[in-house]
Design a protein that fits this description.
CATH topology: Rossmann fold
Strand order of the largest sheet: 5-4-3-10-11-14-12-13
Number of strands: 14
Structural class: alpha/beta
Strand content: 25-35%
CATH architecture: 3-Layer(aba) Sandwich
Radius of gyration: 18 Å
CATH superfamily: Vaccinia Virus protein VP39
Shape: globular
Order of helices and strands: HEEHEHEHEEEEEHEHHEHHEEHE
Length: about 270
């Protein structure tokens, strides 16, 4: 009964954003999700986000005195658990519908040390077209340079959003760790946060060849060029290998040519 009452309140809260929500439990956490989102809509009212191994790696690199930046926070399945490990966390989310869920999830999980910001990270201040994926909201992204059917199969809504360099948003803030998953906008966002990267101990970033090729239209060498000045080591979890800075470009070019991705490359100093 209590669960149904909470779901009812959630639906009323989300009505204004045109999102029908449900509550799902994952371990110690409760998340509001969009019931149209097949990627996170589990059976039996349980949601097991596929980020456990990534959070375990974060745990080894962050402490209670650190500030963390999560770019592409989605509904909070990384930001909320990691917030318990650090002093403060800033969660950047571009999708306005997902952002509404993120704000609710921060309240549901009493994540008072999380600061949520609804903006698209980029390399300059501008308005961008943004694809609001319906059945996989985590796949929402900037308008791809190549409008391949894979990005439009669920008849997504197209909106215009404000983008801004994160170095301009956080002019004098230092983050010990940066976690980024923004579906092909990584290169632009990284270009716009070079000062932040210069002060970070570690960077977690998704690497998918089709995002580089079709969404951003950049090479793996261009992608690597905005990262390698600040970090000396790379962990590729999907291959369980560590790579020194001198081999960053060759390693990522080889993955790109084989169409091999990784959900969370880990760059460290």
């Amino acid at each position: 009964m209590y669960q149904r009452q909470r779901e009812g309140r959630l639906r009323r809260r989300l009505f204004g954003t045109h999102v029908a929500g449900a509550l799902m439990r994952a371990g110690d956490f409760v998340y509001a999700i969009d019931i149209e989102d097949q990627a996170v809509r589990p059976s039996a009212r349980r949601y097991e986000p596929p980020v456990g191994e990534e959070i375990a790696r974060v745990t080894q690199l962050v402490g209670q005195s650190d500030d963390v930046l999560v770019v592409g926070a989605h509904i909070g399945t990384v930001a909320i658990p990691v917030a318990r490990l650090c002093r403060a966390l800033w969660a950047i989310e571009a999708n306005p519908r997902t952002f509404a869920l993120l704000e609710i999830n921060l309240r549901l999980n009493d994540a008072k040390n999380v600061h949520a910001v609804n903006i698209a990270a980029g390399d300059k201040e501008e308005e961008v077209e943004f694809v609001l994926s319906r059945t996989n909201s985590g796949g929402s992204k900037r308008m791809p340079r190549l409008r391949a059917p894979i990005y439009f199969y669920d008849d997504p809504e197209i909106v215009r959003l404000k983008a801004r360099p994160l170095d301009d948003l956080f002019t004098d803030h230092r983050f010990s760790l940066v976690f980024m998953d923004i579906e092909g906008s990584e290169y632009a966002a990284l270009k716009g946060m070079q000062r932040i990267l210069g002060g970070a101990r570690a960077l977690f970033v998704e690497f998918l060849p089709h995002h580089l090729r079709d969404v951003a239209s950049v090479t793996p060498e261009e992608f690597t060029s905005v990262i390698e000045p600040y970090f000396s080591k790379l962990l590729i979890p999907s291959k369980n290998i560590k790579v020194p800075r001198a081999e960053f470009r060759a390693a990522l070019r080889a993955m790109y040519d084989k169409n091999e991705g990784d959900a969370g490359l880990v760059f460290t100093r």
